[in-house]
Write a structure and sequence with these properties.
The protein is mainly beta. Helix content is about 5%, strand content about 45%. A hairpin with a 5-residue loop joins strand 33 (about 460-470) and strand 34. The two termini are about 40 Å apart. GO terms for molecular function: hydrolase activity.
Length: about 550
């Protein structure tokens, strides 16, 4: 993770966590993750001590991995199956450049353009033999080129030198054309049919993300960051590490937010075109930092790349590991399969919404059953759950010594229920290791709420909720009006239609409907409905 002022903490990170010196850390002949068998959703280690990963796909049988190593060289690995990665070579820009030395190398982007291979990376640059980094210089981005898959990259070059376009700049402060013309860190390229896009991070009141079409670099598109958009406090003024991919006609912009030793996590937005990929759209959380019972960090996740192989998608990201006092001890690259919901939204890295129906007067606790047959129980005890009927499992069993459990290791969830302390009864629900939602049905219980979710339409769209009564077949619309729902993409229905002031129990509902309108034009609203069985705790509606 990078921030506006990089020198102080990067010195600590490179020296104390990754290690400095002339060689790559590590430089193994081969590192293997678990086999990517169909249905295997386990999180697998790709490369220890490698951060800010980047994967370039040449074809389904040839991939290249790079990332932040020791700050002196950039390591390059290759794989034929996304499972076994073998060391290929290091790139040392100081050795390749007869004029300059480079330090604090990180966050590379590997891509192909016009038949040649390009390696963009963030760094400081000084004349040969000079102290690096120098006082009064800011980090920026350079690019090196290789003619073929030997990936023997030449001397780095500045981007868009001697232009008014977004460009390489070692000077502090903003360029005359604006701060968003400073290509500082975290470059990412995306080839979209005939267009080629370049994403990058610039500094102003925090970290911000912009892009330009390389065929028209004079037009800059601002996507995220506190200098342009309102950002929530938990992102701590940091939007960085952009990554773009496309699936089924939908574009995705992923980014990381928060300080590396605080709220660091992954987020994304979805849209129908690259210019629409901004925070004006819904910002969806992809990961949540793990904290122990004392509130200290256990893991953080970020700076990711999405890789597709034979129709399946994988999230490659780095995991920050922390000691019991919450101090960062290492960063390593992992991979985890990505699932997609009906509207194209991705399943989260480490969150599962677990819901169960209600028995009056009862209390609950949660166990997890692992794929090896062992049970962690309680994972969340009655002291944490009490009489609530849902919880978000985030990867830490805080009632079991803060044990970390990834989604892919879970085979089932169990809810124990008791009244007057008489424990013993439980229900169990199998889990696929990737979904975001699990519901359990307790015998004799009733439905206290229904969590509704729906897809996003146009950027300025607003929404309302209708329900169809089971007893009469009549629709109540709106049940929850636009004044309450506004632009939200989720709502917890608790048995009352607030707009008309009518109670309608979930058991008396046979369908939910979500309607969407732009600029208050409800006469031309677009609506989508989903049947409801009167018992479920969760319903997802797709607006066509």
């Amino acid at each position: 993770m990078k921030t506006v002022r990089v020198v102080g903490w990067l010195s600590t990170l490179f020296a104390g966590v990754v290690g400095c010196g002339g060689g790559t850390v590590p430089a193994p002949e081969e590192v293997s993750s678990a086999a990517l068998a169909a249905g295997d959703n386990a999180r697998t280690l790709v490369m220890p001590w490698l951060a800010d990963p980047e994967v370039y796909k040449e074809n389904d049988d040839l991939f290249f991995l790079t990332g932040t190593g020791n700050g002196v060289v950039l390591p390059l690995y290759e794989s034929n199956d996304l499972t076994a990665f073998r060391f290929k070579r290091d790139y040392n820009p100081s050795a390749a450049d007869p004029t300059y030395d480079y330090c604090f190398l990180w966050a590379p982007d590997l891509n192909k353009s016009n038949g040649a291979y390009q390696l963009h990376f963030s760094a400081h640059r000084v004349p040969n033999g000079a102290a690096c980094p120098p006082a009064g210089q800011e980090v920026t981005t350079f690019v090196a080129t290789a003619p073929d898959l030997n990936l023997n990259f030449g001397a780095p070059q500045p981007l868009n030198a001697n232009t008014t376009w977004p460009r390489t700049s070692t000077a502090t402060g903003c360029l005359p054309q604006g701060c968003n013309r400073n290509i500082r860190i975290d470059s990412a390229t995306y080839n979209d049919v005939a267009d080629r896009w370049f994403f990058y991070v610039w500094f102003d009141r925090g970290n911000n993300i912009s892009s330009f079409n390389m065929a028209a670099p004079g037009t800059v598109y601002n996507h995220a960051g506190p200098a342009v958009f309102a950002t929530p406090a938990h992102e701590e003024g940091i939007n960085e590490a952009p990554e773009v991919f496309k699936r089924n006609g939908i574009y995705y912009l992923l980014f990381s937010g928060g300080w590396y030793n605080s709220q660091y996590a992954m987020y994304y937005v979805m849209a129908d075109s690259i210019p629409q990929l901004t925070r004006a759209r819904a910002v969806r959380r992809l990961s949540l930092p793990l904290r122990n019972s004392a509130g200290k960090l256990v893991q953080s996740h970020g700076h990711n790349v999405i890789v597709e192989r034979r129709g399946e998608y994988f999230n490659v990201f780095h995991v920050g590991a922390f000691d019991t006092a919450g101090n960062l001890t290492s960063r390593s690259t992992y991979m985890q399969r990505v699932g997609f919901k009906p509207d194209g939204a991705m399943t989260s890295l480490n969150q599962v919404s677990v819901r169960w129906n209600k028995l009056n007067g009862y209390s609950y606790s949660l166990d997890v059953v692992l794929r090896d047959g062992s049970v962690i129980g309680p994972c969340s005890s009655v002291a944490l759950l009490g009489q609530s009927n849902k919880t978000v499992f985030d990867g830490v069993c805080r009632s079991a010594g803060d044990r970390v459990v990834t989604k892919g290791d879970i085979a089932a969830f169990r809810i124990f229920y008791a009244i007057n302390g008489a424990w013993g009864a439980f229900v169990e629900k199998a889990y696929d290791g990737i979904s975001d939602d699990v519901s359990l049905e307790l015998p004799g219980g009733f439905t206290p709420f229904v969590d509704l979710e729906w897809n996003e339409l146009q950027t300025p769209a607003q929404y309302s909720i209708d329900v169809q009564r089971r007893d009469t077949g009549a629709w109540i619309g709106p049940c929850i009006g636009v004044a309450s729902v506004n632009k939200s993409l989720a709502w917890t229905y608790q048995g009352r239609c607030d707009t008309p002031g009518i109670n309608v129990a979930p058991s008396n509902i046979q369908a939910f409907r979500i309607c969407s309108a732009v600029n208050g034009d409800w006469a031309h609203a677009r609506c989508g409905a989903a049947a409801y069985d009167g018992r479920g705790l969760h319903s997802r509606i797709v607006i066509p």
